[in-house]
Amino acid sequence: MKVLILEDEKPIRDFIRINLKREGFEVVEAATGEDALVVAKEQQDLDIAILDLMLPGISGFDVCQQLRQDNPRLGIIMLTAKSQEVDKVMGLESGADDYVVKPFSPVELVARVRSLFRRIYPLDAPRQENFLELPPFTLRLEERRLLKNGKEIPLTPTEFSIVKLLIEQPNKAVNRDDILTSVWGQYFIGELKIVDVNISRIRQKIGQDSASPQYLETVWGYGYLWRAER
Predict the structure, then answer these.
(1) How far apart are CA 61 and CA 59, in angstroms?
(2) Distances in Å between the alpha carbon of 144 and those of 26, 155, 179?
(3) pLDDT band at residue 34 under the 50/70/90 scheme
């Protein structure tokens, strides 16, 4: 697994690098957003990017948006020194899969990286079927691609995991806590808001009218369901 670290403070960058390499990860580094974009173009086999939000020059938000545009399947974790809700939401809306608030323990960060890696390369992907069909959608499991009427909808690793979880259980309401546990892991330390922001991104991508949802519905006070066409 190859991980890009974008962090302008060298002691923090060194701290992250040491702990990731100790766990067997390959690491590349950048101190500025501009450098990170150059490194990402040179390193075509990146699996995950860990991005600090507050940077000189290009912000972590901007880097996240550009990386997501260039590589929809790249795993992205945002680092922030702030605990305000708006920073977390902005990071997720920029295309991040997860966030970690500073100060953080190396155990927590490594656990988040491993959890995200499992979403990108699941070990238990079904082998007996290569796709799930729920017209007008097709979910190609081994390729981890979602198609609508034959046209691909680019999804992040987290978005794909959520869509797969819901499409596997059409017309069944899935609790937000169960989505969080299934996708982020039972030891996730964070807020349920991360589920809602990802659902919002998925709805935008599948072209769903939020005022009258046709496929991805909210079950108020409970969770979400994927409605099969009647």
Answers:
(1) 5
(2) 24, 9, 18
(3) very high
